[in-house]
Write a structure and sequence with these properties.
The complex is a heterodimer of chains A (273) and B (74). In chain A, strands 5-4-3-6-7-8-9-10 form an eight-stranded mixed β-sheet, with helices on both faces. A two-stranded parallel sheet of chain A has the order 1-2. Chain A is globular. Chain A folds into two domains: 62 residues, no CATH class; 204 residues, 3-Layer(aba) Sandwich (Rossmann fold). In chain A, helix 3 runs antiparallel to helix 4 and helix 5 packs across helix 11. Chain A is of the alpha/beta class. Chain A contains eleven helices and ten strands. Helices cover 9% and strands 34% of the residues of chain B. A five-stranded mixed β-sheet of chain B has the order 2-1-5-3-4, with no helix packed on it. The chains are: A alpha/beta (273), B mainly beta (74). The interface between A and B is medium-sized, with 44 and 23 residues.
């Protein structure tokens, strides 16, 4: 069966590119889920045309590795919405999106998944709709719940890494502990006004715990400053770059270091935590 | 003694990015935080000469003190 499908894909490819139309037709003809067809395309060393502009940033082997990855995005607001959008466009095979909230009017200034027509809708449900619109070969599992110590291990069961897109110190520290127990990396991002920070933490490290040590009762600068449209876009973009490097085991992720970004003064600083 | 004080993110508003400031000997980081009217519950990472430090630590002549606010928005 696999050989027949891949022969069909080879015959209908343009060079080594398989168009969306061809991927759809193959899925219908052989009664395969779109994700399975995508896997067969990549296994045959062909490339879905949607990833044509990923070249030569990623090889077909790397695109295959990205497809076989599962990323848990914890928080689907300002940072999480942008992260989910990028992961789907990147071709990540599975996204677990976790958030208990619904969209409210004050989210419209920055949260890319929010829109007037869907105020009052669940954030994770709209994340699933958005991903299905962008890339149906990506599976998004919506979890309308708060991540806790009780449900954390189960929710992150299949995740290769977690993206921290939460909005409180306490919940971030909880996530860090769950990731440590699960032995998976964590890519942290936080924002306030013109300012943001990113850090990547591998199993065995406790950079995030040191960063927020004795700060669980602290008042984050975002409580005064709020968050404008551009800050989550910038910080989430860097988080996705970090995620990509962790998934592929490539590049430098600056272990034990936080990157602090000031968009007002256009400064970026590495801080050893 | 002279201490180089670097402020980050929102701590710069109505203050400064970096200044060399005179303090009496035995000055602690908490003294500087209070002198600059920074709220302790808004304080995040504190570095002295790029190493993490606590509020109670004493500063020395020539030290560089960096103060970051807590950021936690998403």
């Amino acid at each position: 069966m696999k050989e027949i499908v891949q022969q069909y894909l080879q015959e209908n490819a343009t060079g080594d590119l398989v168009s969306w139309k061809c991927q759809l037709e193959a899925s219908h003809r052989f009664s395969l889920p779109l994700a399975k067809t995508e896997e067969l395309i990549l296994e045959a060393r062909l490339l879905p045309t949607r990833y044509q502009r990923n070249r030569d940033t990623f090889s077909i082997e790397q695109q295959y590795k990205i497809f076989h990855s599962c990323v848990a995005v914890i928080g689907c607001g300002g940072l999480g919405g942008h992260i989910i959008e990028s992961l789907a466009r990147l071709g990540v095979g599975k996204i677990v999106a976790v958030d208990p909230d619904i969209f409210e009017e004050h989210n419209l200034n920055r949260q890319i998944l929010s829109s007037i027509d869907f105020l009052g809708w669940s954030k994770v449900a709209l994340a699933a709709t958005r991903v299905a619109d962008i890339n149906p070969a990506t599976t998004l599992i919506p979890v309308k719940a708060k991540l806790t110590a009780e449900n954390g291990a189960e929710l992150l069961q299949h995740a290769d890494l977690a993206a921290d897109a939460l909005d409180s110190v306490t919940s971030r520290l909880e996530l860090a502990e769950i990731c440590a127990e699960r032995n998976i990396p964590l890519v942290h991002g936080a924002i306030a006004g013109w300012f943001g920070q990113i850090l990547t933490q591998y199993p065995g490290e406790s950079t995030l715990q040191r960063l927020y040590e004795n700060r669980s009762q602290s008042i984050g600068a975002e409580q005064k400053l709020g968050n404008p449209a551009f800050t989550p876009a910038v910080i989430a973009g860097i988080q996705v770059a970090e995620i990509c490097k962790v998934l592929l085991g490539t590049g430098q992720t600056r272990s034990g270091t936080m990157i602090s970004i000031n968009l007002q003064d256009m400064e970026m600083e590495k801080i050893v935590i | 003694m002279l201490v180089n004080v670097k402020l980050y993110a929102s701590f710069r508003t109505d203050r400064f990015a970096m200044e060399s400031r005179h303090y009496p000997s035995e000055t602690t980081i908490r003294d500087v935080v209070h002198e600059l009217s920074l709220q302790e519950d808004e304080l995040g990472t504190i570095l002295v000469n790029t190493r993490r430090a606590g509020l109670h630590a004493h500063l020395a002549d020539g030290d560089t003190l960096a103060l970051f606010p807590v950021l936690s928005g998403g």
